[in-house]
Structure formats: C-alpha cells, structure tokens
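Troubleshooting: if your tokenizer reports a length mismatch, compare your output against this known-good record of 326 residues.
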Amino acid sequence: MSKSTPHETGRPDPELPRGVALAWGIAANPQRGPKRELSIERIVEAAIEIADAEGLGAVSMSRVAASLGFTTMSLYRYVTSKDDLILLMAEDATLIAVPDETVERIWRDGITAWVSALRTAYREHPWLVDVPISGAPITPNSLTIVDWFLREVRSLPLTDGEKMSALLLCTSYVRATSAQERDLGAAAEASDPADVSGENFFEVLTELVTPERFPYLSPLLAAGGYVSEPGTGSIDTDDDFEFGLQRILDGIEHHIGRVESGVPVVSATPLPPQLDLPRDAKVREAAKARREAEKALREAQKREREAIKHALEREKHAREKAARGT
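Known-good structure output:
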C-alpha cells in the first residue's frame, strides 16, 4: 500500500472512490479517532493476517477490530466499508519488487519473471483469487504491475491494445491456476492427499475405464499419465504451470511473427445468425425425439456416476478393512 502522506493542504479529495484514494494516500485523515496507535496500515495488516490464516470469508470489520483491541466503529473512522478494506488488502498483498530497469533479457524471460512474481503473491496470499474483479486497475501497486509488464514488451511490434490483451491473458492464467492450486492444497490438507491425486482410485479406475468405452483415455490411464499408480504420484502443479505458460508465450511469439512478416491478422468469423426452423410436424416430432433422447442420456449418465461413486466407496472400504486387519 502506498506510504504517501495524506494531503494536508486543504485541497478537496480527488474524484476517486474512497478506497482507491486511501491506497494512493490522498484521502483526508479521519477528523476524530481513537488512540493514535490505530492506523489504516495496522488495520490492513491485521485483516491480511486473518485472511492468510482463515481465508477471505473470515475477514469482517468486527473481527479485525477485535484482533486490534478496538471497537468496530473505531475502524469505520479509517476505512468506511468492508469493500474498501478488501481493496486495500489486495493492494498491500500485491506489492511486488520490480527488477531494476538495467536488467537486460529477451521479452519471453521478462514476461516469465513477471508471471513468477505475480504467482508468488498469489501463493503467499491464496485468498487473492477470491477478491472480485471490479474494473481496470487504478491503485498504485496494481498499476506498477501493469507498468512492469509493459516495460517487458515495449520493443514488441504490438499495438497498445494487443499488449494489454497479452497482459490480461497472462494475469488470467496466473489467477486461474493459483485458484486451482489453492483448492487442491486445501483438499489435500483436509483428506488423504492420495485421494486428491487419484492414486487411491487407480486400481478401480483401470477396471472402469475400459478401451471399449474410453478408447483414448484408457491407455493414458494405464500408463500412469492420468492418475498415478499408488506411491508414485504427487500434487505438484509446477510442471503443468510451466507448460501452459510456455504455450501462451509461443502463441504471442507466433502472433509477433505474423505481424513482422506482414501477414494480415484476420479476425474471427462471426457466428451465423440463428436459423428459423420450419414449423412442420416432422421437425417438431424430430425435436421431441431429440429432447427425449437427451433426457434419457442424462439419466443414464446420472446412474453411471452413481455406480462409479459406489464402486469407489466399496474400494475405499475394502482398503480400510484390509488396513484394520493388518
């Protein structure tokens, strides 16, 4: 969060939302407040400690106030809403050390370093993935992140819009994979990690996933490429993350090559308009038959899922019974 001194010149607050103005350090100080040891910085720090330990859902104005030994109304003199508090928490949690501008590297390495720094912030504060995206970044730390990315792609023959689209693509990738990693980690802590990785279900799945029904998945499963054999797998997402990132960079590089070679970039063909089907008896009869078939398929799929669930439960119970017997 910005450490700038709030303006004391008597000028009116700028036309910014209260939370954003607080992040920039240009919002007016509260006229009255409790003991001077309470500050916006302390409030945000306490809120982050709660979120790091228990998740964003555990953060409330009353909870933060209690952790600091003040009343809830005392906090409202500094931060006027929970939404503003969450904004300031996200701003503080994304304070990233930007490398010195004298560091020279190719643009792929620069974006990789940028992505790595952003991913580290999400790993240190997993609740960041739960903060709603409400608009374009306009706080100082978030704009610093944008500025760093634009520095790494400054020499590329891309339009301003394409550079911002590339930034959005990379940001979305980090956010989505961080959410997945956070959820998998939480599931592993709450249960058997081998359940999460699928190792415990390898044997039963090899019986259920037959070549006749799953001709392409079956050999992958048998080779340990989908669910690892017991004792051989782990919940490690680094390789998957690196693969995805490099393919994103490959795509950007391919686009750059097209631009440099003068190949026109054709926009996607718009989807055709919805056709008005003739309203005759045969069309209605065929549509009705299709809906009935789709309903029957959904019911069969539901029965299949239930059968698989029961098979997995039986397999788990058998393992537990065998373990007790030993």
